[in-house]
Predict the structure.
Amino acid sequence: MSFWQQLPLPIIGLAPMDGVTDAAFRQIVARHGNPDVIFTEFTHVGDLFHGQPKAFEAFRYSENERPIVAQLYGKDPDQFYTAAQVVCALGFDGLDINMGCPSKNVASSGSGAGLIKTPELALAIMASARQGIFDWASGQSLAEGGVKTRVIDYLRHSPFHRTETCSRQPIPLSVKTRLGYDSVIIDEWSQCLIAGRPTVISIHGRTLTQMYKGAANWEAIGQVSETIRNHGILLLGNGDIQSLPDALSHIRQHAVDGILIGRAALGNPWIFQAKNLMREAIQQGTNPCFPEPLISRDRRFSMALEHARLFETLQEHKYFPRMRKHLAWYCSGFPHAAALRAQMVRTTASEDIERILSDFQATDATAHLSEPIASTTS
Ligand SMILES: Cc1cc2nc3c(=O)[nH]c(=O)nc-3n(C[C@H](O)[C@H](O)[C@H](O)COP(=O)(O)O)c2cc1C
C-alpha cells in the first residue's frame, strides 16, 4: 500500500506551482499549514536526466515536508525511465507526471497539457516511469538503469540519497492534468489515464486554452469521479479553492477523494490548518464552525521575516529577488499595505525586511496615537 492510501480522507494537498513551491515555501507551508501532501514545482525530465544543477535545486526538500511528491514534465519516455529512478534514489514519496501545464513553451512542444493530444505518448511515458520505479525497487543499480555518472555522483552527496544497501520500495505514480486541450474531453481523456494505472489523478477544472480564465469547471471533474474511483484510483479536484469551507463544499458536491490548493496558499500557508476539523465534519455529516480566517497584520509580518530568513539559508544571495513576490503576498489585507509592498519589492536581504517592517509598525503606532486611521485596506 502506498502512502496515498494511508492518508486520511479527504486529502488536502498543496498544488505544485513553478517558481512558487520552492524548498523555502514548501517548508513554511509544512511548518504552518501542514497539508496532507506536498508537490514540488515541476522540473523538466531532461534536466534531471542530464544532471542539470537546477533540477537538483528544485528537488531539494526537508523531512518535515513528507509526504513529498516530485513532479516532472517532458515527452521522452526513455528520459522518464531514467529520471524515475533518480526520483526514487532521492527519497521522494511519489512521482507525479505533469500533463496539465498550458504554458506555450511547455505545451506547444508536446509536454504538459500538450500530452492530452497524444494519448499514446502519455501512456508510454507512464509505462516508462513505472518501469523505472520497479527496476529501481527490484535492486537494479543506477548505472545499469542508464543514470549518468554525474547524476550518480550528485546523488552520493545528497542528504536524501537512498543508498544501494537500504531496502527499496516502489513509489506511487500519479498524474496531474486538465479537462482537455481546447474543449472538455475529460470523459475520454480520463479513460486513457486510467489505462496508465496511476495511483492518483489530479484534475484542474480548466482546459489548456482557458489557461486560468473563467471559473474552474467542477461539474466536469465530478462527472468522471465515479469512473476513476471505481478503478481504485484516487481523484483529487483542483481549481479556485479559496478556503477550507470552500473545499468542504466542493468535496461534498463533486465526490472527490481530496483537493489541491494552489493560489489561495500564496501568502497564506495557514490555509490548511483546519483540515482535521473539516474531515470530522465530513465523517459526521455536520457543518463545522471554522476558525476566523483573518490573519493579523503582525502575524503576516513575522511570517514574511521567517520565510525570508529561511530562504537565505537555502538559496544563494543572488536569488533573493525570487523571495519578493512572497513578501508582496504577505503584505496585503491591512491599511497601507500597498505602500509596504512597494518597499518589499526592492528588498535584497532579510535585514531590509526587518528594518522596513519595524519602521512601518513604529510609524503606524505613532499614527494611531495622533489620529484614527481610516479602516481601508489595499
Ligand atoms: C504560478 C503558478 C505555477 C504553477 N506551476 C505548476 C506546476 O509546476 N505544475 C503543475 O502541475 N501545475 C502548476 N500550476 C497549476 C496549479 O498547480 C493549479 O493547478 C492551478 O493554479 C489551479 O489551482 P488553484 O486555483 O488552487 O491555484 C501552477 C499555477 C500557478 C499559478
Notes: Residues 100 and 113 are 4 Å apart (CA to CA). Strands lie at 11-14, 37-44, 68-73, 94-99, 173-180, 200-207, 234-238, 258-261. The pocket of flavin mononucleotide is lined by residues 15-20, 41-42, 71, 98, 100-101, 176, 204, 238-241, 261-264 (CB under 6 Å). The chain has two domains: 3-284, 297-370.
